[in-house]
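Quick one, T. Sequence first:
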Amino acid sequence: MSTGESEDLAVVTRGLTKRFGKLVAVDHLDLAVRRGELYGFLGPNGAGKSTTLRMLCGILEPTEGEGHVLGIDIRTDPERVKSAIGYMSQRFSLYDDLTVDENLTFYARVYMVPRAERAARIARMVRLADLGGRERQLSGQLSGGYRQRLALACALVHAPALIFLDEPTAGVDPVSRRTFWALIRRLADEGTTILVTTHYMDEAELCDSLGFIYQGRLIAHGSPERIKGETFRRPVVELDVHDVRAATEVLSDWAAVEEVVRVGRLLRVILVPDAPGADGVRAWLTGRSITVRAARDVEPSVEDLFVSFVDTERKDRVREQLRALSGAVGGTGTGEPEGASAPSVAKPAPAPPQAK
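Structure tokens:
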């Protein structure tokens, strides 16, 4: 990699691997995150997201491979990495018996913000996180949404060029999630590089670039548009049919269908590459006495992309896991109606593409 290319990257890894005994948590990961972008790191629980972040933050030593964060070697200089970045864990590292102001002051001192700059920096963080009027409130008494924003403010108090967010919206309500994402989108637009792990597929749509990790391996990466257009290459059809169960059974026997997913009263049909679209699906069902009220071609969702890259026999389990995780906060996380999804019917699909 040339010097110019290296300077454009906030994070770059080559063959990054972490083993815990015989378990390979992260498997030869090649990652590249450009400066100033909002990068979404996606995958179900146990995929290796948090382990990767801990290596990039200098907390865990890699078993193999190499990595640089803001030009700093994570193997030889992990302490320097820690001081140069911001990190927000999914558990919100706050002191419940300290006030909002005291938590910010504590982290400003830990990150060695000059004394002359602390007051102005803390005041800016209070405004950024919309915590005005709560400076003297104990953090343990804040709602989940306010605790989330305070944790982010503490991670930003030293004005890092790069911040890692490890599933920052886990366990907070949908309104707080939306507010939080508006905040980090604003930070990215102002030039801060953000790498965020998430299992919420709707959040992924808000990122500039995505990396899909499964069983410790990066299985696809690029912008959402690029992955949908160049990597997925499968027609997706949404159907409104009279008899959902009968339509599902008929479609599952058709070689042109890769997967059928029930979403409320609708069916979402993922077809094999180059298969006919909505008109072809309608004709197939009509020819088998299935009444089709509506059929339309739709854009694949990020969930469709992710599940398509997973081994066929694991598709149902992964899709159900993603929805269960998202549904834990009262929403689907996939942009689909709540309480409406049923297990999908998956069929053999081509092997997942190799990440470039």
